[in-house]
Fold each of these.
Amino acid sequence: MVLNKESVAAEIKAKIIEIAAQTGDDASELELDEIIPATGLIDSTGLLELIAWYEKFYEIALAQEEINIDNLGTLTRMAEFVLHKKG
Amino acid sequence: MAIAIYVPRINNNDDEVKVLAFEVSVGDKLNVGQIVGQVETDKAVLDVTASVDGYVLGFAAKPEEVVQVGSVMLWVGETKDEAIPEIQDPLASESSTQTSQITAKARILIEKNALRADIIPPIDGRVTVEAVERYLSMHAGAKPETKASAFAQPAQALPEVQGKPVSLTREEKGMAATVTWHRDFAVAGYIEIDYDLAPWVEYAKRFQEEKGLLMPPLLPLMAWRLSEIAQETPRLNATIIANQRYEYIPVNLGFTIQAGDALYLAVVRNTEKLDEFGFVNALGDVLRRAAGHKLRESEASGATIGFSSMERWKVTHHIPILPPHTALMIAHAAGKNGRGVLGASYDHRVLNGGQVVTALKELSLPKKYQA
């Protein structure tokens, strides 16, 4: 399967919308370059769920030190990081 | 001599698990900590890791087979050509005790309780005091002088109102067993204090910026502070065993996490060997595995102190259940108007209210803000 940045970002956004809905938040307006934790749309438990899904869905393993704002802070960065990891 | 790697326990109330797969083959070289395969219950999948270095000699279980917790999963030898012991049912065999590692303290506890060592499911390949205590708490009903079994309930007549019985999931059974330990063994009390949220929020924000963290570190930092306080005050990190206070040497911090329908107590062991950032990373690691239902055996058991937050649900007050063999569980909740409530369930056999309030007050401020 060939991944492209836009479709990966859209998949991640769909997951964030689903997680945010669990606590009654609406993430449909989340922008590509917004810092996800700073939006307050998903809390730390939601972020953990997002990362667990991200690893499983894209079949990548993350080291704890890779889980930072630079790599995963926005939709764009998360999408780029998948492509980078898939090499 | 061949060493057994045992089928691990995933939760308190599951005596059987399914072997999913093996990731090694006969003759493979193994290193301690290497994943050898996976087992699963209804919702959780657990990696089984090698407890020793060596070579895979053979398998005692098969993929898709439902097996007893504590039975032999595979054999490891120092060389490739060692003989596998002729054991088909290690739970019923004396030989399994020869191949498991039993600590000296565990042996004393086993003798004191007139148990057989071979019936104790090991933890990460070792029969420790913790493994014996876990066995005792799960099988208390088997001994006439002890209280009712962990999940035994008096027979109840059916209610007059019509209904239908629904079987509990394994997680629900595990929760029931934990709650029953709290009821049968702990003498639970609860205390809470009001505190100013600002210092912790400010401290966590700065920490997150400095380290470039994705996850908000407020709760991990508070959990780390709890670990520090427990290191300074050993009775907070203790339980009661045979009318004596049993102060744990390591501080194993259990942190509750809801993953889908499952509620886990994810455990960071030996926190006294970590620093603040190391703890935040270690907790992040186990929480991430819990969120993916992939907790390792040693990360799903062995808590000596606990931290629970219901902030996510905007709950402003909750009284947690004490995990088995702990005396203190912190209750963190959502704040309001700049003020928060920090509570604690505690075992009054181990701690009194004053000691708990002192700990809560210490916890209510980051260390660097304290006089």
Note: The first strand of chain B starts at residue 3 and ends at 6.
Amino acid sequence: MRKQRSLLIFLAVVAIISSIWFYVFITPSQQTLDQQMHDVASQLKCLVCQGESVADSPAILSQQMRGVIRQQLQSGKSEQEVIQYFVSRYGDRILLSPPWQGLTLLAWLVPIALMLGGILLLFLVLRSWQSQADRSPLAADRAESVDIEQNELAYYQKQIEQELATEDPVFSRPGSEVD
Amino acid sequence: MYFSDIGIISLILASGFAVFTMVVATLGATRELPQFVASAKRSVLTVAFFLILASAALIVSFLTHDFGLSYVAQHSNLAMPWYYTASAFYGGQEGSLLYWALMLSIFSAIFVFTAKRAPAVLVPYVMATLMGIETFLLIVLTTVSNPFVRLPVPLADGVGLNPLLMDPGMLIHPPMLLMGYMSFSVPFAFAVAAMITGKLDSEWLRSIRRWMLVAWSIQTLGLVLGAWWAYHVLGWGGYWGWDPVENAALLPWLTATAFLHSSMVQERRGMLKVWNLSLVIASFALSIFGTFEVRSGIIQSVHSFAYSAIGGYFLAFLGIVIVFSIGLFIFRLPKLQPEQEFDSVISREGSFLLNNLLLVGAAFATLWGTLFPLISNAIRHQTLTVGPPFYERVDGPIFIVLILAMGIGPLLAWRRTSTRTLRRNLGIPALAAAICAAVLPLSGIRDIWANIAFAVCSFTAGAILYEMWRGVRVRHRHGEPYLLALYMLFERYRQRYGGYLVHLGLVMLAVGVIGSQFFQVQQEAVLKPGQQMTIADYKLVYFGNIDRTYPDVEVVTAQLQVWHNGQLQQYIYPGSKLYASFTNQPTSLISITTYNLTDLYVFLANWNGPYEATIRIFVNPLVPLVWLGGIVMLLGGIICWWPQRKKRPISNRVGAGAVPGGVGTLASPPSQQQPVPDRVGAGVVLGGEGTLASPPSPSIESIIGHPNDNKEATT
């Protein structure tokens, strides 16, 4: 019964939030020209400086490039088209992140693949550990461990209360802890 | 006779003593000769003495402007104020290595002084390893990268320090970061010692954890200071550019963080030994790799020291470290069996495994991105850049999941958690996240990713604060006022609550990063006197430029008025400094003013005579939280690591009664507490442990504030 009620509350909250999000995000967000220009410029590398994007660089060339980006966006090009324009003029080296094609695809895929592999490995390791644990002689009482836990905890709680009550809170120092 | 002669003599003597320590310590340990070990200890102190002497010689050479010394002539001049002159000591390649060697010797000396706290069997091997690293540094310092090389003809005046380094940040950031790199040597030395002796018990773990916490705290401070410096000096409105050198500093921090978490699993449950050792070794290897990468100039970076001769030495050393560690591993592997079995995925140890996967995954992705230009260059002879957009897309989601795990993890019990307790514990944080998710979009935050990220942050902050509140409430019920109760929680359970504080700091930092990442607004305009520019709620009115010329430096500043919501706030003077000796490298004076956690960041990009200026403005919301969060993290780290006062003698308060399920524990010697098969739950065995191992009496701690011991539920 309680379980059901909390589930209902949970669902209600999810519904409210998702309706708000839906309402807010369905209305098209108007990005200002400045924001769009910044988005594009932060994808491009400043060619005369070290390790800075066109958006961040104070160099004259970057200032001019920002001007070009603004013009092109004003003339109705999409962000992707503007980036393509710069790639066609300067090659891939102007991009700040490796493009999604050819060899440079590896830059993206290897970390993603390893992350997924790691999750899979973790899952397999955990499963084999757990099945080992289930086969071990201790497995029998593990099933009831949760119940025991509750009883034991009541017991300790009492003990702690006594302990705390008898102790002077300021001057006692029980040493280190384990956590 | 110059001071530099004292320096070079000290370096040579120090390397002699370092080699001597290695030999004597190893002999003392293998042949069991305590007097040899004692001699090694004194020899470590001697090395520290000579390195202090060498460093003092270099600093004195700087302060006396001995331009016959090549390093001094290249990195200082007569016009520099004395504090920058002295800090030029670590401003270049050779000096920074000397500083590193100095710090390593000082840490080794601290280790010798506190050696009583460490397991005695390990001490000689730890010293030998530390001095092995020291020997390598001293070889480099006396051969390829000697700071005491003299010029054939002394110069009249030096070249001066790179103007970017003439900043208050210079006085603290590089020494901190170098010290952070160096400090991973001590845990590494402990790992080597443990692999040689086979002593990987809880005592070892306690020592290595404390040193790792120290290293972690220093590295945290170094990273935050680096970000702060970049923010205040570089003028692009940000603080973290995913530059290869920044990444190199982040990598060991990530693996060290992973170790600090997974070592808790070993401490409690005796599992993951191999993994923990690998993390310690990886942290050290990554710090050496970072140094190699920075010094060799193989990867383009803003920080480049651009000296390639030394890179090879570090690469060779890295190779030795890796081969040596793997060899020891293979030798020791049979002893590294887990002592306990895994119970359930939904448990604290399960969440630590996830945490480790995420941290190591982030470290790998960052390393991969840093190295990828090299790989691509080798295969296709094409230079390309892996820049911020890459890391933001790959690491960003990992960090968000990490923050979520940070909120859930501490709510889970060791071994297994019943779904009922979990649900109860998740209620309040979930409520916090729900409120955040519902309110933020209505208050105008229209970015879906920013909303998710903020909701995750509020979940985790809610979880931590609720956890603290429960601890305080339990103590308050026993008659402690709230503030005292909070203080006592931190005082008694330092590691736990220090850890929560670190988490809270990281959440604050994350909120700052999210805010500035998603909601930074910027504008640029060319202004003439009287003209104004408006950005967000701010209006700036330009008046003109002021040009002041000093003997060695020219300072140009623009004068502007800041209006916020229609009210005049103040005058600001963003500007630019041009040093006479580095005319092609102006440094900027950035004006940063903070209004309600929002930074108004004004940068003078260009100017033309007294009446025209190009002004760039960034409005950076929440950036102050980044620094605040960094400070809180550091504070938490220090609380975790700060030594406890003298331990209390054995107390029998909780007594045997606390271990109804495992009476056998009482009879076993302290060093074998870990493997006890605890039938009833973590709290129980800990109760037993407290009674016999004199040091900890963690019984209270394991109950108060523990997720599955909510009072209402148990009484």
Note: Chain B touches chain A through 118 residues (CB under 8 Å).
